[in-house]
Amino acid sequence: MTDLPPPPPVGAIRSDRLSAQLAHPTGWVTLAEHRARFAPPPPSGRRKDETLMDVVEAAGLHGRGGAGFPTAVKMHAVSSGRRTPIVLANGSEGEPVSSKDALLMSRAPHLVLDGAFLAASAVGADQVIMAVKVGAGHARGSIARALQERYETEPWTPPVRVVDVPPRYLAGEERALINMIDHGKATPPAGAARPFERGVGGRPTLVQNIETLAHLTLIRQDGPDRFRELGHPDSPGTMLVSLGGTVSRPGVYEVPTGHRLADVIRAAGGGTEEIGAVLVGGYAGTWLTPRQVERATLDRQGMAAVGGIVGCAAVALLPASACGIHETSAVLRWLADQTAGQCGPCVHGLTAIAGATEGLRLGRVEGDVLARLTRWAGDVEGRGACRYPDGAVRFMRSALETFAADAHAHGLGHRCAGASRPTVLPLPDIRRAA
Length: 434
Ligand SMILES: Cc1cc2nc3c(=O)[nH]c(=O)nc-3n(C[C@H](O)[C@H](O)[C@H](O)COP(=O)(O)O)c2cc1C
Ligand code: SF4
Prior knowledge:
- The chain is α/β, with parallel strands linked by helices and 434 residues long.
- The protein folds into 3 domains: 10-229, NADH-ubiquinone oxidoreductase 51kDa subunit (Rossmann fold, 3-Layer(aba) Sandwich); 232-319, Ubiquitin-like (UB roll); 324-420, de novo design (two linked rop proteins), CATH 1.20.1440.230.
- Helix content is 43%, strand content 14%.
- The protein contains 19 helices and 12 strands.
- Helix 5 crosses helix 6 (109-123).
- The longest helix is centred in the last third of the chain and has 19 residues, at 344-362.
- It starts with 9 loop residues before the first strand and ends with a helix.
- The structure holds flavin mononucleotide and iron/sulfur cluster.
- Flavin mononucleotide binds at residues 63-67, 69, 90, 92-95, 169-170, 172-174, 207-209, 212, 386-388.
């Protein structure tokens, strides 16, 4: 590929697994180069490969798409249904701070495709669907070119359906994605079955994040013991952290799970100015104070200890000069504007929360807006057909804690200078993406 821009920054801290595949000098790993390191996946038939599932289980691989679910458990569930399963590779990456999946698909498409075919062999699937976000750099072109390369040199490669996903946050939710593939609408239908029972076309569907599939290729090649050599024992291996906001060297960094968050930020040169707060887990995640950041580690328990979540490992730095209430308000409005609009918690709850936070930003408040927001958050949580509003509420709650002094001042009608600046956090234009 000659038309690729220079590689975006890819960093690695005490690990060089995925990042070794991402730092190719021309930006694209060809099939020949890939095969020099990775054996081809076995031809997928309709028989599940228990040995492969055992390897995944032994490795202790957890999903990298946000929920951190054990991959082997999902594989067993999908493969125990009566109908032949389908594998759905989730490259939706609707989280604006995240860029790891687009990067993997663009630069190491064969790593991802091998992972998808291995997953298909493991569960006995006869079909692979690659869901790729529209506008994700070269991802779509790289996947298409990689498939072409395979059909020419490895003609036994089964057909792969590549589907375009609108770049909206909700579109990456697995049931929204399945609904889009089957009925053209990227929203989760109320009461939809779980994908491992009934997914695409009513068949059991293994939905895996792109990064999870890339790890699968490494695990199969190097073995589960090697995979477990790095990372936290409860969720071993390495992970890709997308680092943005006012960090000196934004980019994608590979680190062992359980690594200290502060060290990742330092390895990226720290903040371009004094850090006021750090967002972890993207727009369904939590704000942390600089003190919490010093204690936080990139694993479930380590993050929970400071009230955070790892999620899809999207991290953004906010400078002390910015207004956290302003940033939070803009993101909540952005999230409220793109719900499926079918459940009360989103239609009423999220809209009201976004409106009240906007009032707080502008210092136009009536009564105890902080108490109202806290009450509404409780009303919304756990009540939607999907977890979309739960993420938004978690994000809002953490803002009220992290920026408590600012929230209080805004609640008294004060408006800070930062509240009229453009936001630091990215907010893609969803009208154009509809
Ligand atoms: C609102 C919402 C948005 C999501 N967006 C994505 C996404 O863009 N990419 C992704 O892989 N998973 C996303 N997920 C998680 C998926 O539903 C699913 O759990 C995941 O793709 C499973 O893959 P994994 O087990 O490999 O992580 C989202 C979940 C929710 C609730
Ligand atoms: S909870 Fe919200 S985003 Fe999820 S299905 Fe209901 S309306 Fe849509």
